[in-house]
Amino acid sequence: MTDRVHSIDAMRIVAVVLVVAIHTDPFQGLGTAGNAVNFAIKTTARFAVPFFFLVSGYFFARKTVDRDPRTYLLRRTVALGSLYAFGLALAAPAFFGGRLATDVATGRPVVRAGAARIAAFLDPIELLYYGTSVSEVLWFLPALLFSLAFVAAFAAIGRPRVGLAVALCLHVVGLLGTSYTMFVDVPFEVRDGLFFGFFYVSLGYAIARHGWNPSRDRSGILLALVACFVVLQIVEFSLLGYPLRGESFGSYVFAPSFGVTTAFLTLSLFLFLLSRPTLGAGTPLPSWGVYAVGIYVTHPVVLAAIRGLRDALAAAGWETVAAAFWHVGGTPSTVAGALGVYLLAHRLRIVEIGGSHFPGVPLLASRRSR
């Protein structure tokens, strides 16, 4: 296998587009058929975030073969921390203003509402661990950081297999607390590094450490497994979202979290990509993969702006135009806008693609070097 896995780099950009599609719900509200299509897209796309966790664990193992994992973890902590800081700096002003306006519109005093919002934004557990105090979407970054820390801890004591077993048990609890709540009530938040990310990062780490590198002649079987698990995941979430809730299929869009089949789908897809490392090498997709995390971090604010434009069009009496704009252009506009914001931030030296994302640090560094 070549040092660069073009197929994985290409899938990064595909995965982040699917993450955006999860949040835009492009076909929701277009009747039963539209809801069904939207559900299928939303369900299939659920592999995207686990994929990013798994990839991170895989390359964490590859980059720490001959070095102390704690050293590499420190580098990743700085990198992820800077990305999170950039995401917060971008999202906090926009979301604070929007939520404050909503509070004031309901009759709450400005000062009291503002103080309450600031306190919520600065809640230490929500801000530093769950990553949801400002934007729910940013949870991925703290979760990945803590997941890498958990894996590094077990690797440092020479027990990565034990770590994977522990992570699997915790992930079962996570599934019970998200998609399978009808069986048990888990009284705490489980969409985090401990109950979710830890498992997928551990799995990626194990794949690299055990040298699971499927040959090209097995790619057909692996691709068939991917297709099989896509179908099974749709079946799983269909049962969870409709018959078990007493609803008819397509009557609304069930918003699934993650299921049992998600792990099998993500694993089979990742192994397929490993079996075809040059897949996509002749296209721009691998080079676009470097922008994936930037699009992820910037898209919440862009999505909020596009939703605001849609609502403004509808309020002005252009409901048909607003609906057409959203269903056809909502997802591509969000992706393009997020990429534009990210590239602009890089051009203005607010962040550096491939380097520090602490807002303003690249600009200060360039001035000091003159």
TrEMBL record:
Compartment(s) of residence: Cell membrane
Domain of life: Archaea
Record-level GO cellular component terms: plasma membrane
A Pfam family reported for this protein in Swiss-Prot or TrEMBL: Acyl_transf_3
TM stretches of this protein: 39-61, 73-96, 137-157, 164-184, 190-208, 220-240, 252-273, 285-306, 326-345
Protein name per the record: Acyltransferase family protein
Keywords noted in UniProt: Acyltransferase, Cell membrane, Membrane, Transferase, Transmembrane, Transmembrane helix
InterPro entries: Acyl_transf_3_dom
Chief location bin: membrane
GO molecular function: acyltransferase activity
Topology of the protein relative to the lipid bilayer: Multi-pass membrane protein
Domain Acyltransferase: 6-337
